[in-house]
Amino acid sequence: MSTFNKNDLGLLVLRVGFSVFLLLHGIEKIEILMDNGGKFPNPIGLGSTLSLVLVLFAEVICTIFIILGFKVRWASIPPIIMMLVAVFVVHYGNSIMERELAVLYLVAFSAIGILGGGRYAVTNS
After folding, report:
1. How many CB atoms lie within 10 A of CB 28?
2. Are 60 and 30 in contact (CB under 8 A)?
3. Closest by alpha carbon to 11, among 123, 125, 116?
4. CB-based contact 69:121 (threshold 8 Å)
5. How many CA atoms lie within 13 Å of 51's alpha carbon, on the beta-carbon side?
6. Cα separation of 120 and 55, whole Å?
7. In the prediction, which pLDDT does 39 show?
8. pLDDT at 96 over 70
9. Which residues contact 75 (CB under 8 A, 6 or more apart)?
10. With CB atoms counted within 10 Å of each terminal CB, which end of the chain scores lower, N or C?
């Protein structure tokens, strides 16, 4: 019989909590994609539409995988990369307080990537 582990519960709260809020950001951006890419930033020169598709992949697909606990370490990589771009490219020159949300997501998804899904996940990686 398995015993209750508060660390696994804490990891579940971290995974689901941060992923749900990032997923909400992604859902808002789906409308931009439906408007043929709309006016989305092109921070690293890949083109506005491709940048939007990559952000949607990180914010929607990857966060759903993380919420479910499916391949959590792999699924955390795109949100980490996206937040690195947000912190060091998109908000370059802004104060740390203006970058606060991106830094918080970066720290949270980095921790999730290091720790994996925990016991309450579909897969342990």
Report:
1. 10
2. yes
3. 116
4. yes
5. 16
6. 26
7. 81
8. yes
9. 62, 63, 65, 66
10. N
